[in-house]
Specification:
This protein is an alpha+beta fold and about 280 residues long. It is about 60% helix and about 10% strand. It has a four-stranded antiparallel sheet with strand order 2-3-1-4, covered by helices on one side. A hairpin with a 6-residue loop joins strand 2 and strand 3. Helix 1 runs antiparallel to helix 5 and helix 7 runs antiparallel to helix 9. It is elongated.
Amino acid sequence: MPQITRVQVRQFFLMIVALEIIAVSINLFYAPHAVAAGGVTGIAILAEAAFGLPVSTVVLVLNTVLLIIAYFFLERATVVRIAFGSFALPLCLALTPQVKVVQDRLLAVIVGGVVFALGVSLLYRMDASSGGTTVPPMILKKYFQIKPAVSLLVIDGLICLGNLFTANFEVFVLALLSLVVTSLLMNYIETGLDRKRVIYVMSEYEAEIKALLVDDMARGLTALQVTGGFSGDAREMLMLVVENQDYPHVIKRIRSIDPSAFLMVHDVAEVHGGIF
């Protein structure tokens, strides 16, 4: 019998936490205001608003149907990966009370979008899924090479249109706003929270700048061999990786040596390892 490792227990716990975060976003922010912002949960919110059906029940039925479809069209490993979330999310929805904690609908949509993005991003970081409308994009990618981001956007957009029938145009706009908030925050989280800045420096006083910064920049200071596009001369360009809070201080120190130094700055999501 295979032994369950501590890593597996931790991953299982984090999956439950992520799914509960998604359930909180639905039952405390979206469903009480009848705002369907895409996904199977959005369809469930529309069904509740139109027919009074419980959100958790609709999610369970739809997730089961989509999981069966995935069984026939996707790899077994993919089906296993999304199976747990497909059944655990409806359970979390059933156990989480539906309460209108925020009275203002706009605020509820914004907060709900933020909370939802946190839950989904946590699942993605573990290569897990809550099932639902993530299944059709996988199938479309496999058989028709359609990008999942495009197909998922179309599916969520169509679900958002349902707000026009169960509520009004204002709710439809709020649902679209929620999709934007969720997408932007998920992109920010998935590309890394430990953001830094990379500074490229070219100066006649390169040695002096390097000597001034070397004590502060033991990690992330190196020299690159470059060729001038106009002059054709071989030069060295310094590359520095700095924390965001250190950026103004470093720029000030460089300018104190050479006010006319050439600087190019990029934001980077993550930096790992390396002592230069």
